[in-house]
Amino acid sequence: MGFVVGDINSRRGRVEGFEDISGGKMIKAFVPLSEMFGYSTDLRSGTQGRGNYSMFFEKYEQGSKNIIDKVLNDRSEPVTGIDKIPSMGYNSRLVYFVI
Length: 99
Hints:
- By secondary structure, the protein is of the alpha+beta class.
- 27% of the residues lie in helices and 38% in strands.
- The N and C termini lie close together (10 Å).
């Protein structure tokens, strides 16, 4: 379980809670969608194939300053006003079933 929580934190995630379910534990967390690519492989490797997860969109959130700066620097065209920049991140709610 420590691996899963550490991995969530390394992906800029926020753990919301833990639950006991039949056969294991369930971890609920918010993680930015951009950090979830390749996650299935990492979860299975870290849990010896026993970990499973499901993910669904929960809400939009403003990205942190360093993420906004990275997105703006990667743009090919200049941005003329900060008020024209939409929210730069959104979170997915992850539900883990670690058995």
